[in-house]
Amino acid sequence: MASGYPLPKSVAGNLVNKALYSAGEVVPEFLKIIKWCLIPIVVFVFYWATEKYLVQPQTRLVYNPAEFPCRVFGFSHYLVGLIFMLSSRTMKKAVSWLWLSALLAVSVGICVLFYNFGGAGNPILVIFYFLFFMFHGYRDVILFYQPQTEDKVLEAKRRWIFRYFQGVLILGLMYVLVPAFFLYLSLKPRTYSPELQASIDAITPYLNGLLMSAWLILLVCLIGMWRLLKTFPGGAKGFWQDNKPVMLVVIYMTLIILASPLVGPWTYNLLILSHFVGWYFFASRRLETAPKQATTKDGLWKWVRGSVTGFQALHLGFAALFLILVLVNHYVLANTGVLGLLLGGNAFYYWTVIHVTISFAPKS
């Protein structure tokens, strides 16, 4: 296993860091993830340009070269994650199934509200859909890269500081992205269908209420984070030194989001895709630390769950399968029927909501 972060003297003592990545590996790992996300996006930029400017079919396969690979790899990620969740030791407990059922019901309720207020056609909902995903994205990045010691008190403080920090980031982004959207509308007004405009108008009072009241939650997060930072060894400076690599990754992610008003909302797809790729690399690395790699002789399931090769074959195999299904749906079935309903661009929003919601189930 990789050596852990070099902790400051006030933190280190005789503690052993159990992080999967060393301090010098974290930022390069994130940049590697972004590189592997940009590669398929660039490939589909060429496909998108060919369709739009040369072939000009009546119905194009790729309307957004960042969304398409995000959807294909996302479906694979969701299915593999679900399989691993349902087959985990945690799911042998009745309470885990109760949690899963409750969260699944909540996710269905969110999907219904999302649909009733215009779904992906409502730009306000799309912003909040992305912010909801970033709860998931920030949390997992911190889980992947934060240092981990055997000091339970120290780790409890670290977890809560990061939780408050995530709250500050999400609410801060809301106070940037929503006004930026309305500023954009004032500069370049858009015309929506009467039904969609009615949905936007219906949700606007709730949005205004949220913007006027959420600063209280933001204040609570800031106060809670500051109080804990004062008790962390070395204070805020000690926390920064101890967690600098993962903090830098979170800052880089936030900067990518803040660039969206300037470079376009495709950066949302980039970050969502980076979550899938990042989990793929993280899970592969964690499997590498196993004392022994399973083989196909141990059985197909043990090979998939207990070896890097098996896990990667499962993940990439599902991605290839979903790509084939999407192509069949478009070129053979003309985007009609069950496949179009389940694997279309609009469907991805709902599957994402379900995935993120049930991911909050307790892991132990």
Describe this structure in words.
The chain has one domain. By secondary structure, it is mainly α. Helix 5 runs antiparallel to helix 6. Helix content is about 75%, strand content about 0%. The chain has 14 helices and no strands. The relative contact order is 0.16. The N terminus is likely disordered. The longest helix has about 40 residues.
Describe the sheet with the most strands. none
The span between the termini is 23 Å
Beta-strand share of residues: under 5%
Which runs of at least 5 residues are low in confidence (pLDDT < 50)?
Answer: 1-15
Tell me, what's the shape?
A: globular
Topology, number of strands? 0
Q: Secondary-structure element order, as H and E?
A: HHHHHHHHHHHHHH
Mean pLDDT: 91
Radius of gyration: 22 Å
Q: What is this entry, summarized?
A:
By secondary structure, the chain is mostly helical. The protein is built from 14 helices and no strands.
List keywords for this structure.
364 residues; mainly alpha; 14 helices; 77% helix; globular
Please give the structural blueprint.
Layout: H1 9-12, H2 23-55, H3 67-86, H4 94-116, H5 123-145, H6 152-187, H7 194-231, H8 235-258, H9 260-263, H10 266-288, H11 300-306, H12 308-331, H13 337-343, H14 345-358
